[in-house]
Design goal:
By secondary structure, this protein is of the alpha/beta class. It has a single domain, classed as Rossmann fold (3-Layer(aba) Sandwich). The chain is 39% helix and 20% strand. The protein has 4 helices and 5 strands, in the order βαβαβαββα. The protein has a 5-stranded parallel beta sheet, sandwiched between helices. Helix 2 runs parallel beside helix 3. The two termini are 13 Å apart.
Amino acid sequence: MAGMHRLTPPRIAVVDADRRVRTSLADVLSVAGAEVVGMAGDVRSALALAESAGPDAVLVDPRLPDLEAGLALVSSLRIGWPDLRVVLMGWADDGESRLHDAGVSFVPKSAGAEEFLAAALDACRCD
């Protein structure tokens, strides 16, 4: 079905320890036409959100509350929901780069709104 357009908006969750970042990203994605199905600020809440909301993609800051917890979250999401697309947000693509081969993409936190939206839509394979 390559080239077909999605009829429903992409369902996206935002996971970041900073409430302001979560809210800002959710606002940008919503204005752009995505359905933000929820936000979480820690690993436990993020896993519960993946279970209850069934997003197509999750934007994740892997450093919540520290890098190891965030990387464990990404691994848990990929194992528990293999079809769920994960987009990592960060200041540098350093330690997270090993996850790229596991279907995880990256967008820098310094990116503009359009880049965040493009990364989320690309992860969902949405046009």
